[in-house]
Design goal:
279 residues, alpha+beta, six-stranded mixed β-sheet, 5 helices, 32% strand
Length: 279
């Protein structure tokens, strides 16, 4: 996921600093950069958000539409993720490079959130109609740690999403759906069980959180840990070809849980404040 080029000397400088618990921007290995979250930034969507994490900038819009449920899952709604890496964010996003990263990011989001969203509540008429949530993400700038930024943005965008109230008219096979056109006659999505991702990058014999683009180049492996607001680990994904010692893995999970709990708490406070301002 690196977007910059480094010389061997620069890599050595970064790795050596991390070994001493000192990073080039002055942070320690477990320090997170400041995050800004702004909801309701895109009109004509069911929910939207822009998240900035230092040099990383992502935009997400959610569209709720009525669709037919899958034959194998007649009582469930559907969620689809799509990520687009703007060529303006980095030269390597032009052409195939951007497509490959977008696919990797989409797959990570699908794995993280597919089991956390209550799809039963998105069912309208079993076997006939359901809500489908299209979650579209655009990477505007890439300064490292895209997984975490996107996961925070997904949770915030879903919190901002409102599902129109429906009326079911008729009986049996004659049932039809009437959608309220009153924007205030809608229902929010419960995000209490939706986690955020904490990416821990193994660099040398240590690990760091919230890696910059330069630090990601020096990373041997990435551990993506999704944590809900209770501090529970919901999923673990490993990226990269490097191995992780079991003792180090246990320590990374412990730190990931701690940081994930803090991220959830801080995000919830921001979302509650912004929701109150809209009322």
């Amino acid at each position: 996921m690196a977007t910059v080029m480094l010389s061997e000397e620069e890599k050595y400088f970064i790795v050596s600093g991390i070994e001493e618990d000192f990073r080039t921007d002055g942070r320690s290995c477990n320090d997170y950069r400041a995050i800004t979250v702004q909801t309701g930034v895109i009109s004509n969507t069911s929910g939207s958000v822009q998240v900035k994490l230092a040099g990383t900038n992502v935009l997400i819009g959610v569209k709720a539409e009525i669709s037919e449920p899958l034959l194998s899952k007649p009582n469930l709604g559907k969620v689809e993720f799509f990520v687009d890496c703007s060529a303006n964010a980095s030269p390597i996003f032009e052409g195939r490079g951007g497509d490959e990263l977008a696919f990797e990011l989409s797959a990570a989001l699908q794995n993280t959130f597919s089991g956390a969203i209550d799809l039963e509540k998105l069912c309208i008429i079993p076997g006939k109609a359901c809500w489908i949530l299209y979650i579209d993400a655009l990477v505007l700038e890439c300064g490292g740690n895209l997984f975490d930024a996107l996961s925070i943005a997904v949770k915030a965008a879903l919190h901002n999403t409102r599902i129109p109230t429906l009326s079911i008219i008729g009986e049996g096979a004659e049932k039809s759906i009437e959608v309220s056109d009153d924007p205030y006659n809608s229902t929010p999505i419960d995000v209490s069980n939706i986690p955020v991702l904490v990416t821990l990058n193994k660099v040398g014999e240590r690990y760091i959180v919230d890696a910059t683009a330069e630090e990601e180049i020096c990373s041997d492996a990435q551990l993506l840990v999704s944590i809900n607001q209770k501090g529970n680990v919901c999923s673990v994904q490993k990226h990269g070809s490097g191995g992780i010692n079991p003792d180090l893995l246990f320590e990374m999970l412990k730190v990931g849980r701690k940081i994930g709990r803090i991220l959830n708490e801080q995000l919830n406070l921001v979302l509650e404040k912004q929701t109150a301002e809209y009322v």
